[in-house]
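testing teh design pipeline on a random one, pls ignore if ur not involved
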């Protein structure tokens, strides 16, 4: 038996050795993953790089705001749009999100740090919870010098009090008018001591395969803006029969007090004499549109008009397409997508939303669904708007941050990033207008 036992042991030796090698390799691989995940718990260093793209300075987060375009400068406007991911999000099927990163308090503290780093004049945020607004954002932003307006807080389609808002620096902008709807909020502001007016909208349009609903929401917003433009521009041409319609201007606004608590206040009725000879108003429409560039709602924004021949969204029966689809206004011309020119660079246009992480069974999904749209300085003859000149863009995430997201099982949100959307930020040059006498 002794020789047989030795022979049998010898025959099993290669198998045992192979198993040991495999176990060792697996252990090293798992250790390397844990090590890499540990490494990305710390926020990657923000790069300070900068690139010129057709006269626009494109900056990494560490170089924002860029030199020569400092914060709170007369004649410039720094605007941020960001879906901050609501506090009551359940993270269902988000296996890559560490448990300690899911509580709202953890993400909220990170959000505050990010918001403070932008030095922005205007924040257009989406997915803020109005029920907890004061402690989530109101008190913090009020301490930084911001007031706010919000969308309509009424319960609709299950989105109870999760709404878009606009924060604006009270020392730079004066609120003149405001209109909040279920999915959008638009405000009209006077810029500093000049007579310049600017309309700014924050949007969170319907998600999923709901192109008709998104289109209706976008069209409703443009009709609201069109109606307001006719009030502040008495010499505006009459509306098209298929275009704008009258809309009542609300007499009250939701505005943040210095203590960060929402309150209803009366906006002063403007003297018609004060509206005479105003310079052409400016327009910004920002937000999470839940839409690709070719979505009907984006075609409407980018063209300034829409007709049935432009609707080519697949998968919809004729009865699902909105009945009143034609839209044309002679006050609002085509809007420009601020980040569109980054598609011309070697790295391409950065995505604004990410689901999943490397190493999962399902592929990582990356989409461009967030936008900053503006009326540029080359408005066509159909528009009565003034023009903004784009001066600088902030990359949503630096080079080191993008590299960190390539690591196995590292996605967003995570230890150093609080949302599933990336922020957009742009600096615009305002047209020169005479100061108020």
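output:
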């Amino acid at each position: 038996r002794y020789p047989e036992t030795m022979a049998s042991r010898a025959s099993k030796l290669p198998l045992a050795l192979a198993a040991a090698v495999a176990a060792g390799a697996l252990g090293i691989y798992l250790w390397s993953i844990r090590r890499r995940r540990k490494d990305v718990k710390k926020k990657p260093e923000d790069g300070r790089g900068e690139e010129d793209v057709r006269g626009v300075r494109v900056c990494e987060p560490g170089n924002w705001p860029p030199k020569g375009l400092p914060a709170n400068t007369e004649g410039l406007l720094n605007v941020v749009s960001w879906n901050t991911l609501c506090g009551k999000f359940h993270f269902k099927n988000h296996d890559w999100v560490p448990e300690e990163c899911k509580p709202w308090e953890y993400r909220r503290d990170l959000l505050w740090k990010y918001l403070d780093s932008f030095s922005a004049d205007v924040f257009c945020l989406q997915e803020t919870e109005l029920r907890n607004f004061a402690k989530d954002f109101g008190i913090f932003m009020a301490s930084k010098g911001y007031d706010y307006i919000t969308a309509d807080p009424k319960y609709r389609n299950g989105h109870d009090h999760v709404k878009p808002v606009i924060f604006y620096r009270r020392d730079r902008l004066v609120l003149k008018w405001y209109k909040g709807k279920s999915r959008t909020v638009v405000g009209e502001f006077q810029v500093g001591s000049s007579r310049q007016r600017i309309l700014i909208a924050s949007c969170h349009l319907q998600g999923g395969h709901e192109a008709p609903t998104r289109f209706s929401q976008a069209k409703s917003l443009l009709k609201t803006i069109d109606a307001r433009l006719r009030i502040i521009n008495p010499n505006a041409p009459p509306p098209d029969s298929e275009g704008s319609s009258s809309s009542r201007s609300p007499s009250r606004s939701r505005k943040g007090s210095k203590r960060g608590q929402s309150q209803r206040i009366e906006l002063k009725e403007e003297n018609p004499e004060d509206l005479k000879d105003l310079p052409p108003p400016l327009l910004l429409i920002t937000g999470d549109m839940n839409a690709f560039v070719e979505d009907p709602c984006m075609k409407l924004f980018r063209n300034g008009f829409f007709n049935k021949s432009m609707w080519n969204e697949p998968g919809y029966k004729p009865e699902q397409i909105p009945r009143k689809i034609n839209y044309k206004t002679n006050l609002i011309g085509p809007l420009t997508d601020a980040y569109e020119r980054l598609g011309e660079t070697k790295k391409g246009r950065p995505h604004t939303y990410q689901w999943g992480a490397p190493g999962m069974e399902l592929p990582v999904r990356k989409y461009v669904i967030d936008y900053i749209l503006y009326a540029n300085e080359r408005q066509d003859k159909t528009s009565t708007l003034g023009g903004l000149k784009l001066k600088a863009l902030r990359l949503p995430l630096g080079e080191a941050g993008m590299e960190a997201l390539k690591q196995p099982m590292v996605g967003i949100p995570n230890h150093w990033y609080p949302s599933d959307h990336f922020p957009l930020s742009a600096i615009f040059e305002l047209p020169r207008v005479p100061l108020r006498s």
